[in-house]
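Figure S7 source data.
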Amino acid sequence: MASTMLSIASATPSASLSMHEKLKGKVKLGSTTNSTAGFIKTKSFGRVSMVAAVNVSRFEGVTMAPPDPILGVSEAFKADTDEKKLNLGVGAYRTEELQPYVLDVVKKAENLMLERGENKEYLPIEGLAAFNKVTAELLFGADNSVLKEQRVATVQGLSGTGSLRLAAALIERYFPGAKVLISSPTWGNHKNIFNDARVPWSEYRYYDPKTVGLDFEGMIADIKAAPGGSFILLHGCAHNPTGIDPTPEQWEKIADVIQEKNHIPFFDVAYQGFASGSLDNDASSVRLFATRGMELLVAQSYSKNLGLYAERIGAMNVVCSSSDLAARCCEVAVIQVKSQLKRLARPMYSNPPVHGARIVANVVGNPALFDEWKAEMEMMAGRIKNVRQKLFDSLSAKDKSGKDWSFILRQIGMFSFTGLNKAQSDNMTNKWHVYMTKDGRISLAGLSLAKCEYLADAIIDSYHNVS
Ligand code: KET
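Tokens for the predicted KET complex:
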């Protein structure tokens, strides 16, 4: 513990002060001139004061933060020494041997980068130009009119989280008081992001536990009821944590209501390619809104689909209005929005890291590598689908209660929302060494075919024997 200097004015007797009173006193960092028996004489503003050196940290008032509900699970998993342990907490892809996976295309792109001997100079604040170009093309489709008409301001961000945080800062600064509506439930970090950015948020209904499906009526009603001009946060595909996405017809209706209410759609696209195995299919929700000429925000992440978790590579895209009348205004708006995103980024992190941006630019920008990537992504999405099927088969075969587990097959993406409550999830961890988030979510990307039966036993025990 660091030693704290407590300044006690010479006029005040010091020895009898309680620790609390001392802590309330003025903390001094001034240089010392003389020291006798635990007291140090200092000169301050011409007055002589006595400073007591005590073993109290000035950070003592900083309280203990709770562990992160998702990343904290990985920490707890590491500390468990049981051989049967299984980490289904964080959404990170593992091989059938449950090992982390670096995509072959990523290794190839890195080799190319090494051969070229690229430098490590700072990137511009908005990031690598080649990355920004391909990331927007991947999202909207290269021949989408929003790109042809240059209606998108794209800046590289610190993966999905950093991109969302940057957009939140833009909302806070330019739309003061505007609310963000998030789905109930949603990825836990959304609330932290908007809280820290001081952006007010509320929830719209999304998941219906009775049907273990989408509460579409509730969702539409809540979006309708929100004050006009609110930001509506939508998961582009593979909704986290539920794995339940609206159908194409439902997306149309969601777009209708958002348009009617003059809301601004704000997409979080963290799983493009991971829901269906197809990059284009998984971007169809975003493209539907863009094709309607709506203004929208889209955060992108390459953590999952390119396995670049630790490279922190993603982007923030702001699509500006399309009407012919507004064409000139739109051009100006794009430039202005981009300039403000840069202004927000500069004091936060100055400019983004280059390595992941180069990988994405090389993979997406090179037709041979791009095709290889698509094949690897299909392989990853396919492995998750196989595990999903096997888990369902195991549950159905072992559970004699007649419970219908078919909702697991209707969910898509990396996760399954099991419906287990907190006590049941605790039982999964404490008794079975299965690590998962307390909302009942399991990451199927961390499960192997070989472990499905064991997991089914754990789920059946927790579901039927813990209330
Ligand atoms: N959005 C969603 C919906 C999401 O699930 C994640 C990550 C992110 C954004 C951000 O990912 P990034 O690595 O910043 O690009 N989700 C997983 C990891 C995490 O919580 O950070 C997860 O839910 O396990």
